[in-house]
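thought: fold this chain, then report.
action: predict
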Amino acid sequence: MTAGTPTPTAATTTSVGGDEAHRESIRGRLLDAAEVLGLAMLVSALVVAVMGHDPARTLAAIAHGAFGNGEALRATLREAVPLVFTGLAVALPLRLGLFNIGGEGQMALGGLAAGLVAAVVPGLASIPAAVLAALVVGGFWGAVPGFLRARLGVHEVLSTIMLNLVAAPLALLVISQSWAKADGPILQTEIATSTLPAVGPALVLAVLLAVAYDVWLARTRSGLSARAIGLAPRAAHVLGLPVERGIVLAMTAAGALAGLTGAQQVLVQHGRYVDGFSPGYGFTAIAVALLGRGSGIGVLCAALALGALRSGAFAMDALGVAPRETASIVQGVVILTAAALTAPRLGGGQ
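observation:
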């Protein structure tokens, strides 16, 4: 080595090696997700054939309805954006070995908070105020099971399921007594004073959050700590890592992400909070997180794929290729296949 040539330090070598390992990890996760999705579509084709429909025409109709023109693509993105938020709400705690099944409740109460605030705060200020309200309320509803798990050992699957059951009647009670309730047969808030006219801003936010999640997970001390807790919580505790605080913060962040989905539905989709607005985003998010193999980019791709299934169902029905419910069956097969193939391998680590 010549004079003046800098000698590679251990830190530099480790950093380069870490960068390469991280890129390989992301590439591997995307390949795994593609393999799972491909196998799921193959199984779906067999199921469609057993139902008496042409698998090739059925899948082609779904693809046309999802990506065939500009309106189809916009519909797919509208379906994909909430799945990104809720998918991250499952993927984040999953890194710490936690299973957040409370997305539906967190999303409903976050959306309710957004709807109430957006109906009374005047002008453009209502948009950030509604988003903040959704983050706070959704985050609180996620923090409760996190606290119960960290301090009392109550399993988060049980507590999040029970909180889902509490969230729906609680939302109905609050909205029925609200000063911002709209008249009509469906419980809903008054129209928001300001809304977002297109899916674009929410889509940009979804992409930024997914990328930020990957950067946080790979590049920050707290992200590495979260992965260590998920891999070996007892060892992490012995090493002095903040296991209990990590559990509470992860579930709080997950609830906030799910609450953000509720705000997106209020400000973009409906212009107000509408009771029962979710077609099951909180549960579909489990498949999104599993298909995405816990990475933000993977969650983006999985959300796009499942969003395409949802939007393509309408075209399939309109073309007379197969009933719209066939797409729901296909989605169910994808979810079951993803759960069967990825859940045992995902865990908390890379």
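thought: worth noting. The chain has a mean pLDDT of 83.
final: tokens above.
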